[in-house]
Amino acid sequence: xxxxxxxxxxxxxxxxxxxxxxxxxxxxxxxxxxxxxxxxxxxxxxxxxxxxxxxxxxxxxxxxxxxxxxxxxxxxxxxxxxxxxxxxxxxxxxxxxxxxxxxxxxxxxxxxxxxxxxxxxxxxxxxxxxxxxxxxxxxxxxxxxxxxxxxxxxxxxxxxxxxxxxxxxxxxxxxxxxxxxxxxxxxxxxxxxx
Length: 194
Description:
This protein is an all-alpha fold. It is 70% helix and 0% strand.
């Protein structure tokens, strides 16, 4: 009698999502997911648009775990930045519609999404995972540059203003202090090496 609900509930990717998170907990799993020849991470990230919360969680957890490899694999992460940044920044971009002044400094895939009304990501865990992933990327100097190049800090600033969950706010603040101190640490090194 309940058979007509099963097709809806039984989304195979939902199970795959949790498997992927487990695979991405191990270093060799992350290497496999980040291998540009396989193109797996790109395919996974594209599932983030799904309306299924389980699927979104699986994707965001997998991306976050893969970002632990940012130190050695940053290039492979940034190769798919047109998919990566929207998956990481849109969930933490807050609720407001961004103006031309902000979106003109963003790639199209971010700017166009932020200049219209959008469905907020209500699950705080996904927002924390996105912020942790951004933090791991931003620990690398080239990762910070990439974040600045898509106007990421502005998105984080706006998102932080809308955020009410203390755990999520903490994750924003962690990146904030990294961006402030990170850029400070880089300046002296350029001046002293003269």
